[in-house]
Amino acid sequence: MATPVMAGGFQAFGHVPAHSHYHESPLAFGPPHLPFRPSELASARYQHPPAGHFHYNQTTSMADAPFLTPEEEFAQLQKLSNEYEPEVTGPLVGDRQSSSAIATEYANADPIYRVKTQALPSKYAFFRTCRGDGHCGWRAIAFGYFEALLHVGDVAKFDVEEARLISMNNLLNLAGFSEDVYIDFAEEAYDLLRKLGGSLQVGNGASLLLEAFNDMGVSMAIITYVKLLASAWIQSRAEEYQNYLQIDVKSYCSQNIEAAVCEIDDIAVAALSEALVKPAGIGLEILYLDRSVGDEVNAHAISQPMNFNGLLPMIRLLYRPGHYDILYRAEDLPAPQQQATIHVALAYNNNHNFEEASPDANLLSMIPGMYSHNRFQTVDQSFGHRWPPATYDFDPTPAPQPHITPIQPYAPPPPAPVAPVSVAHQDFMSPVHASPISHQSPASHHSLQLEQQPMQLPFHPHPPPPLSIDRAPITVERGGPFRPSMYELEPGFGTGEVTPFQTNIFRNSHFNTCHFMNPSFQPEEWSPHEYRTGNKGRHKSASQ
Amino acid sequence: MSAGAKKRIMKEYGECMAETPAGMKINFDEQNMTKWEVLMDGPDGSVYAGGHFKLEIIFPNEYPFKPPVVSFRTKIYHPNVSNDDKGSMCLGLLRPDEWKPPNKVVAVLRLIQSLMVEPNIDDAIEPSIANEYKENRKEFEKNAKDWVKRYAK
Question: Region Disordered: start and end of each range (chain A) (predicted)?
Fold first, then answer.
């Protein structure tokens, strides 16, 4: 039994007739359900990511217990599978990141997912993960509620909301919850409202909010509080909700809402929307990413936002079967924070490296007015003086990354590649060699008039900083004198999608998302051809 | 343990002190408030009447978002209490999936009292004792009383 395994030959093994029953098995094994520990899979044996041919794993376990009949073995595996709880890791609520990361995650998945996730970034530029510990739906809505209030940015609104929540204690009392118990949970919500209201002056609301929701005690209290609100809401409208329920309202609330660990379901989403989200004037929309027909995620509006001086606060949830994350449209977010001066200084300080960067120097020589070093310096200083410091923000993550990307040196860029990242970008997406006129076009996002254009290539003599995900939003939103690179507009920019460092060691490690131990594990589509042609196309990003 | 959990445990302890359910005594160590020791009398009219049972309630760090863990430190012949040196109980609202954060320890103690009067056979941890309770009540009562005499005096 162990021989084919030791040979490491999945092909030989795949043809052993005695194992054909694995393929016919009615049991729903999936790679995520097989709780083998790495120790059981010596790396020498474990040559391929598990997706698509996990009979491989089963063989390993059979080698350990050779006397089991197939039925017993199934029973045993099914038992293991049932008992398996995926290791829940990651922040309770993650940082906001470019949603092209989702497309990257699904790059090798089922075609339906692939199409839908690739369409995602053009409409919903950002997303935020919620830990899948059984509370993610509750957590996502609660977080979205506070975040939407922050986006509205009105101190009075926080006071109004606190007063409204306090007035809902009547509802909780009516539903039979005792005040001395729920008040502990409620207080955390009031506190957070007060803190966020106070943060508007300082502008650190987003980090306060993230901090609060990543504190287990605080976030669980708030989650429990919104659960009680949903439960009380349903119980106060029992006749209405009874129509949707198979069981009586009281036991539904007790089992599906109040229980310490229970996923939010459609009815609870609707109730929570009515109780918490809608009265605050916030919209709620759920985008379903599943295998249904279509080339986009299916949007389902639960509540419509009110208009706050042109602002429509929205909570958008991305639903993948069994899990909720938070999605954003670019326009949902408040205008990017302005950061200034740094970039001027950096460009200035960097120019002494100018001649060392030989690949870049070639690029430079292609630009009129950029030929000589002296010239460069002069231009640079003049920029430093003339540039209004508050008009653009700097992002130290440079656009092209010649050190790590396998991209050919500069080719004349194709005319405005379709940019799925965000509409706002295309404003300042202009071809490299465009005449200076185009930079003065009124459509330009940053109303700066350039008389000289040479300063537009972002030189980076230092090794590029790690492509961190939380950088991505800034990269996308930046303005300023630097012409954005075409590569930056490709989906997956800034998420490490193009990492060429794909070694066998990496691929077989749990840092690979194809590996079942990876917290963001995604089954990979198995295509036999790829095994014959080496590991082309099997790259997955590890940087999430 | 978070401040919220401590606050909650203190609050519950205060309530238990102000209004201790009949037939119980709670020992509380200020230094280690996550472990309560409860002395519970066998309820009158039950087979355990006359016995004094020592229970231990341990509050997890995530309390009240996870249920307290209850165990009998005194041996008891009961279908819902494991017949080993742990004396553990896991049923009803003590189950992690049925526990609700607003539940209080008092409710747990009341549940235990009512289980001593009327065991929950469908949710038994000791199937043989449950079976005996169902099929041969006399034998069960004899054994239970015997254990009370032996361990719970």
Answer: 522-544
